[in-house]
């Protein structure tokens, strides 16, 4: 019973602290969030341990230590830029142990494992980004930034251990063009596109292919409809792509049009620097374990000619009706073409994990 009370009390303290931190972060201007004390760490031992684990499969190009602002959750990270020497499927695991500083009555050591999947295609491969999940398929010649957590808890920095696994190696030249499943996906996608006639100010770099509606029924009566626009990269360029609904409704949205998606189209085969976007995390305490994942998402989208990008530009939710019986009209009747706007290229370093990638984007 005492343990339950202790956990509940600690949860209340965490909730109070979280609200305080959130209120302070909201009050701070953007510039103040970016001002952080420089982090100085001797990473020579870490670098030697990582290089030994990689075994020559990946070359370490450079490394740096940085600290996330309290607005972004805090913590110091070791960012290592690596370059693969062959294509294939790999994974990198790093582990450390820490003692929970809040359990003064019953300290327990916790072992944490981070597993980063690394898939690499041959030089000039088909990276083919889709949607806004920052997913990608790096190619030989590309650089990947690997993030390693350092001091999220006490006794973390000294305890890192690395393990590298080769799952499969692709033969030279395999996958340089679109894979068969991608070709099938392209045909399926094109069959469902509505060929809208819209003004496209980015037509020189991105060809507008059309739009489509997607309906997601609710478990209770109702549904959510979303409209997506699909583009195909044509030639190199840098700009922010802003999508909305028709001009009449866009004028009613006002500030909703600010920002846009940073898009960079590069020559096919041009080397690119990526941030490893996801990892699996496992915590082990005694006989118990917990499993989750981290996402290191960024907003810029890097494409090659021929690759496609699909973005959401509108939608609505209805309760109490099914899509086919909605008295306000069918999904297709309410399907408005996208309004496309080109803005000057700009990446907000304060958004997501952009600060780790903004200085390494292709020019």
Structure description:
With 363 residues, the chain is α+β, with helices and mostly antiparallel strands. It folds into two domains: 32-176 and 270-298 and 348-360, no CATH class; 192-268 and 305-343. It is 17% helix and 37% strand. The protein has five helices and 16 strands. The strands form four sheets. Strands 6-3-4-12-13 form a five-stranded antiparallel β-sheet, with helices on one face. A hairpin with an 8-residue loop joins strand 1 and strand 2. Mean pLDDT is 78; it is low at 1-35 and 250-258.
Annotate the secondary structure layout:
Elements lengths: L1 H26 L2 H5 L9 H11 L3 E10 L8 E9 L3 E12 L9 E12 L22 E7 L11 E9 L10 H12 L14 E12 L4 E12 L3 E8 L2 H7 L7 E5 L7 E3 L2 E8 L2 E8 L5 E3 L4 E12 L19 E5 L20
Main features:
363 residues, five-stranded antiparallel sheet, four-stranded mixed sheet, disordered N terminus, globular, alpha+beta, 16 strands, 2 domains
